[in-house]
């Protein structure tokens, strides 16, 4: 563990050096994430300013959901963005082989190879929204509520990573996994709003199959004092189960890895 | 004692066969037709510590597939590989500590990082002891002439510089076994020579085992005491380099030049005409049945010979002959 932390830190330092070489990219990346998020928020605001609330949910309450989801997404973005491009940037050009001949876990090597600084934009927007909503809604900002948020954001981040890991592992068979990852990942947009907005089946999908709901709707409901019972505390368990299944699938996929050409 | 033990190793790739066009793509999606391609079949060999083995064969013969199974990149379909007591797939990390790998066609280093940063990162991953790392780095800098490129990012290096960088990265943790997949591909003679000397020197000082695939027979002649030839996924020769010449190079060629046009020549038995023009005749004969002087004498009685040249088969032409005539492998028993 200590060894892996040391190696990870070394990767971070090297990555930072590269970023400094391409300084403009660094700023454009972070700013574009903020702008991208900003556009979604404006769209949401444009819809919700027409009506004071939808099914009893106000704009601020929905922004809390949105903010929590953005923070979880940020964790995935920061630590696991390379899962998106495993097929295109690593397997197809034959770059994945080198991870398999080094004395560290190949998945760790893949993730450490590119820490994605663009995630800073997610964290700025996420913290901003959660903070704004909590203040506006006069929710208590205490050690307990902050600890709860941190626990849920980490669990949500792991759920995001787990689902991307499963879809990324399909690259071992189909090479270009981006469309598959995109298909699954896009469903997280449903989780920007209360799951009660949708048909029951969507709620079930985002709770039990693609459990993005645990990164947004459920923790927000708990913070808002809605009675959702033990569902409020289920996220860490769901995260643990998802990442375990995902990692097993990844290992299974590795056995099917066919490498490329000569 | 053998450090690499390969038993009944086989690899079959299964690919989906696609017909052209949209229709074909849809068909492949719903009713895939699989095509099996045997890349390696029932391979057996052992390699001892300190050996430099040349692993050769035509493109697509299964060389890279074998190397990838030995290094742990691919899972074998059948059989087993043991490298220094480890299963390269199941004990990936333990195996990786013992081996160094260079793929001539692709980089192991970080495109955007200066070489020294890449080497630091590699040393970190392999946990090379810092003082030892310093020692090795200065040694490699000297023999591979890295000083001028240590601060250069890989992306701006020439092919020759890149390969020297790759070698340094592959050897920095002092591996017991090194796999080199076409390490001299596309390089000029000077760089080739430097790289061969580096490999040879390292092998002699560290008793490192080297397995080398190449299309450059200069690599083989200068480095390898033993050669394994693979064809269509199966081993067709395994033995000392010099024995290839003895076993497969049994034919010599002789060329006669004349002043008079050549007509009507009776060839001695075990002798075959390769080419005939007006003033020149090229023959091939089996050295085990005929001597050069017997052939020359027989011909001189019939034609007015102005000059003749005798050609010993070189490794290149023997290998070329073998590649072009796979049945030639059967002419001699495979040396086990």
Structure description:
The complex is a heterodimer of chains A (262) and B (336). Chain A is mostly helical. Chain A has one domain (2-256). Chain A contains 13 helices and two strands. Chain A has helices spanning 2-21, 23-48, 59-80, 86-91, 97-100, 106-113, 119-136, 143-169, 171-174, 178-186, 200-209, 217-223, 235-256, and strands at residues 53-54, 57-58. In chain A, strand 1 (53-54) and strand 2 form a beta hairpin. In chain A, helix 3 (59-80) crosses helix 12 (217-223) and helix 8 (143-169) packs antiparallel against helix 10. Chain B is α/β, with parallel strands linked by helices and 336 residues long. In chain B, 35% of the residues lie in helices and 29% in strands. Chain B has eleven helices and 13 strands. Chain B has helices at 21-30, 63-71, 92-98, 115-125, 130-143, 159-171, 189-206, 217-223, 241-248, 292-300, 315-324; strands at residues 2-17, 33-48, 52-56, 78-83, 99-103, 177-181, 209-213, 226-231, 234-240, 251-258, 271-276, 280-286, 305-311. In chain B, strands 5-6-7-3-8-9 form a six-stranded mixed sheet, sandwiched between helices. A four-stranded antiparallel sheet of chain B has the order 11-12-10-13, covered by helices on one side. Chain B starts with a strand and ends in a 12-residue tail after the last helix. The A-B interface holds A 3, 6-7, 10-11, 14, 17-18, 21, 93-95, 97-98, 100-106, 255, 257-259, 261-262 and B 13, 59, 63-64, 68, 71-75, 92-94, 96-97, 99, 101, 103, 105-106, 108, 110, 112-113, 117, 120-121, 124-127, 181-182.
């Amino acid at each position: 563990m200590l060894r892996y932390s040391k190696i990870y830190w070394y990767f971070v330092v090297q990555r930072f050096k590269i970023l400094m070489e391409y300084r403009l990219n660094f700023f454009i990346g972070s700013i574009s994430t903020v702008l991208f998020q900003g556009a979604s928020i404006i769209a949401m605001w444009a819809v919700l300013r027409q009506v004071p609330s939808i099914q009893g949910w106000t704009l601020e309450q929905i922004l809390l959901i949105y903010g929590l989801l953005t923070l979880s997404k940020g964790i995935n973005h920061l630590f696991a963005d390379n899962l998106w491009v495993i097929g295109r940037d690593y397997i197809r050009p034959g770059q994945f082989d080198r991870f398999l001949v080094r004395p560290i876990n190949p998945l760790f090597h893949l993730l450490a190879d590119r820490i994605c600084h663009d995630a800073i934009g997610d964290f700025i927007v996420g913290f901003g929204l959660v903070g704004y909503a909590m203040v506006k809604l006069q929710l208590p900002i205490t050690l307990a509520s902050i600890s709860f948020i941190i626990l849920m954001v980490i669990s949500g981040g792991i759920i995001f990573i787990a689902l991307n890991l499963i879809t990324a592992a399909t690259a071992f068979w189909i090479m270009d996994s981006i469309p598959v990852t995109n298909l699954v990942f896009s469903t997280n947009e449903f989780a920007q709003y209360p799951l009660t907005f949708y048909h029951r089946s969507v709620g079930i999908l985002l709770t039990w199959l693609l459990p993005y709901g645990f990164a947004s709707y459920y923790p927000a409901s708990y913070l808002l004092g809605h009675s959702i019972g033990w569902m409020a505390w289920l996220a860490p368990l769901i995260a643990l189960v998802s990442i375990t299944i995902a990692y097993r699938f990844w290992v299974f996929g590795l056995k099917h890895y066919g490498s490329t050409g000569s | 004692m053998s450090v690499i033990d390969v038993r009944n190793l086989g690899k079959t790739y299964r690919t989906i066969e696609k017909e052209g066009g949209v229709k074909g793509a849809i068909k492949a999606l719903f009713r895939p037709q699989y095509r099996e391609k045997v890349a390696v079949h029932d391979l057996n060999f052992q390699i001892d510590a300190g050996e430099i083995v040349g692993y050769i064969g035509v493109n697509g013969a299964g060389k890279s597939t074998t190397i990838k199974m030995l290094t742990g990149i691919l899972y074998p379909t059948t059989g087993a590989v043991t490298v220094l007591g480890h299963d390269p797939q199941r004990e990936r990390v333990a195996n990786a500590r013992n081996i160094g790998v260079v793929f001539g066609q692709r980089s192991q280093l970080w495109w955007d990082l200066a070489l020294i940063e890449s080497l630091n990162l590699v040393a970190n991953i392999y946990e090379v002891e810092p003082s030892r790392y310093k020692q090795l780095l200065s040694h490699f800098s000297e023999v591979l002439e890295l000083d001028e490129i240590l601060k250069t990012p890989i992306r701006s290096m020439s092919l020759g510089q890149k390969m020297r960088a790759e070698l340094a990265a592959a050897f920095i943790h002092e591996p017991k076994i090194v796999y080199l997949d076409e390490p001299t591909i596309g390089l000029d003679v000077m760089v080739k020579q430097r790289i061969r000397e580096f490999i040879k020197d390292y092998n002699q000082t560290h008793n490192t085992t080297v397995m080398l695939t190449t299309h450059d027979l200069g690599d083989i002649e200068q480095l390898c005491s033993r050669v394994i030839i693979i064809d269509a996924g199966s081993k067709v020769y395994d033995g000392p380099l010099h024995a290839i010449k003895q076993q497969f190079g049994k034919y010599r060629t002789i060329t006669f030049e004349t002043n008079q046009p050549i007509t009507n020549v009776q060839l001695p038995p075990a002798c075959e005409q390769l080419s005939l023009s007006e003033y020149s005749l090229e023959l091939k004969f089996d050295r085990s049945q005929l001597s050069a002087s017997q052939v020359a004498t027989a011909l001189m009685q019939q034609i007015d010979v102005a000059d003749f040249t005798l050609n010993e088969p070189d490794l290149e032409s023997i290998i070329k002959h073998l590649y072009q005539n796979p049945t030639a492998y059967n002419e001699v028993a495979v040396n086990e």
